[in-house]
Amino acid sequence: MFLFPRFGVIFGPTFYQLEADSVKRINSHIGLIYNSMDFIGVINLMAVLEVTCAERAVFYREHMSNYYGPLSYSLSLWFAEVPYLIFVIVLFVTIEYWLVGWSYNGGDFLFFMFVFYLYTSASTYVGQ
């Protein structure tokens, strides 16, 4: 959780207030968006894999005993992950977005944060 603001501070100044006035600079912005989304997504995916492997035997045991089914287990994982994902994404995106200076429109910022949330949550849930 404390790594993500650090990554925002690392990624943000790399392209600090870089204008998008040429093809090379636009490609740099696109590369930063891709790299930051993929980096955070893969970190979450790898962090969840270890926990999922450890909980697998418990899930099978509880499922065979008819304590709960796959839907309730999946929903409990989802409800547990959503607040964490929202928190770390707000931290990371807020730092990176304003340091890079993509757009000073609040709607654009919220849209970027929403897309970042969708990608990161998809990466996290693939690991589960």
TrEMBL record:
<feature type="domain" description="ABC-2 type transporter transmembrane">
    <location>
        <begin position="8"/>
        <end position="127"/>
    </location>
</feature>
<keyword id="KW-0472">Membrane</keyword>
<keyword id="KW-1133">Transmembrane helix</keyword>
<feature type="transmembrane region" description="Helical">
    <location>
        <begin position="32"/>
        <end position="54"/>
    </location>
</feature>
<feature type="transmembrane region" description="Helical">
    <location>
        <begin position="75"/>
        <end position="97"/>
    </location>
</feature>
<dbReference type="InterPro" id="IPR013525">
    <property type="entry name" value="ABC2_TM"/>
</dbReference>
<feature type="transmembrane region" description="Helical">
    <location>
        <begin position="109"/>
        <end position="127"/>
    </location>
</feature>
<protein>
    <submittedName>
        <fullName>ABC-2 type transporter</fullName>
    </submittedName>
</protein>
<dbReference type="GO" id="GO:0140359">
    <property type="term" value="F:ABC-type transporter activity"/>
</dbReference>
<dbReference type="Pfam" id="PF01061">
    <property type="entry name" value="ABC2_membrane"/>
</dbReference>
<dbReference type="GO" id="GO:0016020">
    <property type="term" value="C:membrane"/>
</dbReference>
<keyword id="KW-0812">Transmembrane</keyword>
<keyword id="KW-0813">Transport</keyword>
